[in-house]
Amino acid sequence: MFGWLKNYMPRGIYARAALILVMPIVFLQLLVSVVFIQRHFDGVTRLMTSAMNIELRFLIDTANAAETADAALLAVRQLGDPLEIETELPADQVLDADIKPFEDLTGSMVIETLREGVPSLITVSLADRRRVLLWAETRHGPMEISFRRQRVSASNPHQLLVIMVVLGGIMTAVAYFFLRNQLRPIKRMARAATDYGKGRITPFTPTGAVEVRAAGTAFLDMRNRLERQAQSRTMMLSGVSHDLRSPLTRMRLGLSMIDEKEAAPLLRDVDDMERLLNAFLDFARSDAGNVAEKVRPSEIADLVLADALRMDQDVTLLPMQGPDDPVSMRPLAVRRALDNLIGNALRYGTKAQIGISVTDRAVRFTVEDNGPGIPPDRYEEALSPFVRLDPARNQDKGSGVGLGLSIVADIARSHGGVLRLGESASLGGLKAELVLAK
């Protein structure tokens, strides 16, 4: 029902906290101002103006009782001096309409009460905040009457409203200061979680309220548990690889002592087993890698290109898009990922291209080839470990266990990014995009 409000709500937690603080205060001030203050000042103004109407009617009746205009002026001035009312009869000029400033909150009540209590009233002017000026009809012509504004209305409610707004602002600022101290641990925990998703370990100590501390402690426990699991996987596969290398070495040594033709098939089996072990070890180490550091994306691409050219591979580097500023990443892991993508491209094709694109939020490495590609409906399957897409990629051109793209995807996820597959527009084969969050 109120889903449309989400488009207008602030995104940040500080802005939402400020909105939660400000809205009740503003609503309360409006309620008090309109319902209580204004009604109270209207009532007081009506009582004070009603009392003033008695004096005004007496002055007008006195002027009407005099025989001449001079006698009327003398009589009303004799009464007006002790009452602190100034009069002029006949008046020099009379306004055609009442004057009430827009910001005068009690002016309407003053004019309304004066007209109810003084039937001969002509017009009223409240242009001067300190005095009330009005004109009344008498038998000797219009009479101008002036008296202090304080006699018909209480002190201007603007002062009270200003005090309420100022105090409300001060209390909001104080409340926001204390609330910010409660929100700061949540921001730090969110930053630590974001950095961990990008492969960086940020020091974090749970602080704040009990619930926030509990969430921070749970996050630390989860992060430590994931780190232990990654280390255990790496150590386990490393140990298995180390333990199997010795028997394989002995088998290779034993095969070298028999007839070469008879030993050839067995030697190929031993080579395949060694490649399998290396693939398992690379997969285990894909999210361990080296420590993150500031590196220019072009430096990593240049190193990968130099290795490919040294091996006489047909690999080219496209012009870089975006600024070549240092970016925090694990250079050895990213280089391993690009090596896997290039090896995968050249295994099924004859040519590969490397592209780099840098934006404010991510670094994108692309590797394209001219091979047969992968059907779009099998992109997700191709990123799964131990999957070999025989119909799409000719396995006669290379051997493997289906871990190449999985290793690259793990490295991308450890940098807070993703590995995307698509079709190369320039070469017609597979296009792999390694996206790393900055």
Automatic annotation (TrEMBL):
Keyword Membrane set for record: yes
Cell location: Cell inner membrane
Organism (species): Yoonia litorea
GO CC, alphabetical: plasma membrane
E.C. code: 2.7.13.3
Keywords attached to this entry: ATP-binding, Cell inner membrane, Cell membrane, Kinase, Membrane, Nucleotide-binding, Phosphoprotein, Transferase, Transmembrane, Transmembrane helix, Two-component regulatory system
Parts of the chain that traverse the membrane: 13-37, 160-179
Protein's name in the database: histidine kinase
Keyword Membrane part of the UniProt annotation: yes
Endpoints of the signal sequence: none
Membrane-protein topology: Multi-pass membrane protein
Reactions this protein catalyses: ATP + protein L-histidine = ADP + protein N-phospho-L-histidine
Segments forming domain Histidine kinase: 239-438
SMART domains hit by this protein: HATPase_c (SM00387), HisKA (SM00388)
